[in-house]
Design a protein that fits this description.
By secondary structure, the chain is mainly alpha-helical. The protein contains 9 helices and no strands. It has helices at 4-16, 32-70, 75-105, 114-117, 122-160, 164-186, 198-221, 225-251, 256-281.
């Protein structure tokens, strides 16, 4: 049996295994084709996460909406949960649209504007490319962070229900899964001429993995189905937006056939690690 401090420690470990995949940018002499494949593999993992997130969010929402329709619970409960689902998707999608706009217009120096890039300055083009890569990596970390918050809630709720064995198995499964998510976060900044700083990599890990610990803490103390659905749908919306950006980036580095192979491998990795969690619950 695990006590409460041990639960929080395990929740932190489950989230921060994301740092295992983050050293990917340290790889040197990576050609465009290999970078494109790695980008596509990460995209496959994100596609799996989208499937996983929305399946859990919709399952919970559908059950509550059905109960509201049959009169088992007040109709307002069903409406609120549906609003949380669709509202969360909107926040995830348009929130990152706003973030990208702010990062591009207000944080990127005027000299790196597209007009200057089009003038043919190779140095400016490289700077613009690296700035975009850093921004994409952070957006991936934000999307995965919302997803990992829901995973932490599941760990905390299992503990609160007295299911210690399930809580421990979830920690093991999520820890394995988060290691692959670190790979997805690091993919956009792999192979850059200027390697990212350790400080930036730590920040990515905290943004992506830290919410698992926060979710474990909150889930063990208090649970709301509305909050659970909201954060899942925010994660889903954010991951959809990021996936579209990653696909566009991948097409610039390699062929569509290589991208499809990478996505396939990424999906296999995602479903395989999720199966570990499911088998552990049996």
């Amino acid at each position: 049996m695990i006590d409460y401090p041990q639960l929080l420690l395990l929740g932190a470990i489950a989230g921060f295994t994301i740092f295992i995949g983050l050293p990917l940018p340290a790889i040197k002499n990576l050609n465009a084709k290999a970078k494109g494949f790695l980008n596509a593999l990460s995209l496959g993992i994100l596609v799996f996460l989208i499937i996983d997130v929305f399946s859990h969010a919709w399952e919970s929402t559908e059950d509550i909406a059905t109960d509201a329709f049959t009169g088992s619970i007040p109709a307002g409960e069903g409406i609120i949960h549906l609003a949380a689902l669709f509202g969360g998707i909107a926040i995830g999608l348009f929130g990152l649209v706003w973030y990208e706009h702010e990062a591009t217009i207000k944080r990127v120096p005027q000299i790196l504007s597209l007009e200057n890039i089009k003038k043919g300055d190779d140095h400016l083009h490289q700077l613009f490319h690296e700035t975009s890569a850093y921004r994409l990596a952070m957006m991936i970390a934000v999307g995965i962070g919302f997803h990992n918050l829901s995973e932490g809630l599941a760990i905390g709720q299992s503990y609160a229900a007295g299911e210690m064995g399930l809580a421990l198995l979830l920690v093991i499964g999520f820890a394995t899964h988060n290691a692959t998510e670190g790979f997805g976060i690091a993919s956009p900044i792999t192979g850059l001429s200027k390697k990212p700083t350790i400080r930036f990599m730590i920040l990515l890990g905290l943004v992506g993995g830290g919410p698992t610990f926060i979710g474990t803490l909150l889930g063990s103390l208090w649970f709301s189905s509305i909050t659970y659905i909201l954060f899942l749908s925010i994660a889903g919306g954010a991951l959809i937006y990021v996936s579209m950006l990653m696909y566009n980036t991948g097409r610039k580095h390699t062929s569509n056939s290589v991208i499809m192979i990478g996505i396939f491998v990424g999906l296999c990795v995602g479903f395989s690690t999720d199966l570990i969690v499911h088998l552990g619950e049996i």
